[in-house]
């Protein structure tokens, strides 16, 4: 297995729909090609939260993977969300056959409420790799949820064949500052990716890259932010973070992270990548005032329209 190189920006693209709610393959391909046109973009992580992955039918998910695979030359990572371990492994196998290389492995939904039995997460990752054939990304949910993995569980998953990276969204800096070094010590090759979209700055000095929905709307500045973090250049990282702040606030400091997905589409419309910001239920429109506020934030951050020629390619 040649492990995916995710050391850079790994955007989690939104899924574009037609106004009638059906999949808009042309618009999805446009976003995919634009993002993949940056050398520092290492993979595209589709069918995640930002991609409304669980709002798509099984057939639509595969159609989207195929479209991405045809459109770009970088690895496609699919969000794998099936509840049971066998179901998830089969979902992974179908995704592999459609063209995916990696799996962003979501926890079983029941664990969010009840917590998990010891060993169950390890077996889920094992099945997705061994039976499903996808390289896996260890998805660390926020500390506030019961689907959050203790350090031993993370280390054991990371040690399993096929696990190449962790997308860490723990949102507890006490844990981040102790667990990231321990993970690196135990598995030096494990690629560390932050997904703290709402406040990336404190995590930027410990990571190999980002795996973020934010990557949809501001890849240029996030690429610079990753570079500044790797150079341990705090003043530069802070400057970029400050420039992004109006957008961070308008998109991610909202009532709920779910609203962030809607806001991403409004941002992509502002940048000329989408004609409209159609979403699927259970997402809800944010309303005119919020849309203007989001657009004004892009303006304030100096993030403008993407060159039309590139967008149309
Ligand atoms: N950035 C969010 C949402 C993405 O999946 C996270 O922390 O998981």
TrEMBL record:
GO molecular function, one term: 4-hydroxy-tetrahydrodipicolinate synthase activity
Keywords from the named record: Lyase
One Pfam short name: DHDPS
InterPro entries: Aldolase_TIM (IPR013785), DapA-like (IPR002220)
Xref: Gene3D superfamilies: Aldolase class I
Superkingdom of origin: Bacteria
PANTHER family: DIHYDRODIPICOLINATE SYNTHASE (PTHR12128), DIHYDRODIPICOLINATE SYNTHETASE FAMILY PROTEIN (AFU_ORTHOLOGUE AFUA_6G00110) (PTHR12128:SF38)
Family: Belongs to the DapA family.
Entry protein name: Dihydrodipicolinate synthase family protein
Organism: Pseudooceanicola batsensis (strain ATCC BAA-863 / DSM 15984 / KCTC 12145 / HTCC2597) (Oceanicola batsensis)
Lineage: Bacteria, Pseudomonadati, Pseudomonadota, Alphaproteobacteria, Rhodobacterales
